[in-house]
Amino acid sequence: MFERVLVAVDGSPCADYAFGIARAMVNRELGHELTVVHVARSVNGRPLVTADDLDLRERLGQTVAKLLAEGVKTRMETPTAFHGGPAFAIAEVADQVDADVIVVGASGVRKLGGAVLGDAVLGDVPVRLLRNAGRPVLVIPMPKACFDD
Predict the structure, then answer these.
(1) Environment class of residue 37 by beta-carbon count within 10 Å: exposed (0-12), middle (13-18) or buried (19+)?
(2) N or C end: fewer C-beta atoms under 10 angstroms in the chain?
(3) Any residues with CB less than 8 A from the CB of 16 and at least 6 apart, and which?
C-alpha cells in the first residue's frame, strides 16, 4: 500500500518507536523505500546543530548503512528548518521524495533552557503535518506499556 515511507525522528523514545513501525512497513522484496528525516532547527537564520543532533545523525547514518546492506532502499535527509518549523521541512522532503505516507511519533523532544520537555498530548509537529502535509500522516503513540501507572 505504501511504497515510499518517510519517517521523521528527533531522538525521542516516541520517534524511535515510530521508526520501528516505519521500518516494519517497508518490504525490500517489493522495492519499498524508506526515507529517514532529522530536522535541525535554526536561530537567527543560521542552523543550530547541537551535539545531540550530531550524535543522532551518526546513529541514524549507521542504521541507514545497515538497512542498505540488508537490501532496503533507504536514505537519510537532514534539512534545516529556516521558516515554518520542522513540520514544514519534513513536508518539503516528503514532496521531494514523493512519499506515500509520513510516519511520526505523537510527541517528541523540546529543549528549553537545558531542560528536556515532552509534549503533553500531541506534539506540535504531528499536528502541523496533519494540517499541511497534503498526504497521509501516520501518528504513532507510545505503547501503554511504556508509561508508569
Answers:
(1) buried
(2) C
(3) 9, 105
Element (H, E) at 127: helix 124-132
Specify whether the CB–CB gap between 23 and 66 falls below 8 A.
no
- pLDDT tens for residues 99-108? 999 999 997 6
Neighbours of 30 (CB within 10 A): 7
**Yes or no: is domain 4-140 CATH 3.40.190.10?**
no
Which of 40-62 are b and which e, b meaning 16 or more Cβ less than 10 Å from the residue's Cβ? Answer: bbbeeeeeeeeeebeebbeebee
- Domain boundary assignment for the chain: 4-140
Query: Residue 114 corresponds to which amino acid?
Result: G
With b meaning 16 or more CB within 10 Å and e meaning fewer, what string describes 72-94?
Answer: bebebbbbebeeeebbbbbbbbb
Residue type, 102: I
pLDDT for the residue 146 = 59
Q: What are phi and psi of 68, to 5 degrees?
A: -60, -40
List of the chain residues with pLDDT < 50? 110-121, 149
What's the pLDDT at 147?
56
